[in-house]
Amino acid sequence: MGITLLDLQRKKRSGEKITMLTAYDEPMARMIDEAGIDMVLVGDSVGMVILGYSSTVPVTMEEMLHHTKAVRRGIRHAFLVGDLPFMSYQASKEEAIRNAGRFIKEAGCDAVKLEGGEEMADKVQGIVRAGIPVLGHIGLTPQSISKLSGYRVQGRDLASAKKLLRDASALEEAGAFGVVLECIPYQLAKAITERTSLITIGIGAGPHCDGQVLVIHDILGLFEKFVPRFVKVYAHLAPQIREAIKQFKDEVESGIFPDYKHAFSMEEGEWKRLLEDIT
Length: 279
Ligand code: KIV
Known about the structure:
- It is built from eleven helices and eight strands.
- It is an alpha/beta fold.
- Residues 22, 41, 43-45, 83, 137, 180, 203, 213, 215 line the site of 3-methyl-2-oxobutanoic acid.
């Protein structure tokens, strides 16, 4: 049996930190799962780190399901969350329930994530009533990047801090089990963590959340277009990959690769008989 909602809630109560990373394909999901990470998110960040879009806005349901199915095949223990892409849940409660259902039924997710607080409460309630656990996402919500005028810290003034507290309460009342807090002051993240029963997962929200999430390509140094200040880069893989590709190119061009160690052979007599038959 993999990690369940009850396990995550127990961790919150006991103060044990919850770990979460994104994944978009089977081999990476397998490595993350084997490392004992609690939750895996197939984020719509797939659009930026894998598909080459300049934001998460163009990502479609079909793209999300394609990657989520691959991730599912790599996971045995972690709690798997699928990210509802832009315009798959905003238009109506019915559409939100139907698309959330696809993540569970077609891609084998344990829960779905969606962006927004108060404004999305009716959708969250509908999805939860359909039997699907929901993780909210407030603060910097990349699907609304145009409305937010760019990637900036949220909740720094009284009005927006109060709004985020209301958003968290609305998600709690609607039945969400948790919330991603992105790019907000750590004091506000602490207040939300203490004042609600929601499992808070921070990204750029300081150390007081119940858990932390980061994008796997960011921590491995594989996404080089920009690195947000809240990201800690644990490995710099992009230069190593470039070097390996360059070595392959040099060795093929100079005849070093393939050598006989990387080739197949047949016994000399056998080859001669074969040659006679051919000619
Ligand atoms: O899409 C994503 O990867 C996310 C995380 C950064 C929380 O929403």
